[in-house]
């Protein structure tokens, strides 16, 4: 299974139990509930509202989160 397939399969598992992943602490302080699913060397950032999972971004774990956190924090609903 290649990396893309592994990530896609992991994302599909969110259908069963979307709240199993931790909320990103840095965003929780801003009252933004975005979760992080770890898949090999990647982080899948997603939001879960009622019956909908929305994948926001997939980043390699060596990437800096500063830009993502700033971008998401500025789009706070």
UniProtKB/TrEMBL annotation:
InterPro entries from the UniProt entry: RelE/ParE_toxin, RelE/ParE_toxin_dom_sf
Origin: domain of life: Bacteria
Keywords assigned: Toxin-antitoxin system
Protein name: Type II toxin-antitoxin system RelE/ParE family toxin
Protein source organism: Streptococcus oralis
């Amino acid at each position: 299974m290649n990396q893309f397939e592994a990530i896609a399969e992991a994302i599909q598992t969110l259908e069963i139990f979307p709240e199993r992943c931790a909320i990103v602490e840095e965003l929780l302080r801003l009252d933004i509930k975005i979760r992080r699913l770890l898949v090999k060397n990647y982080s899948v950032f997603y939001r879960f509202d009622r019956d909908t999972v929305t994948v926001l971004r997939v980043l390699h774990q060596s990437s800096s989160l500063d830009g993502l956190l700033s971008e998401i924090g500025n789009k706070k609903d």
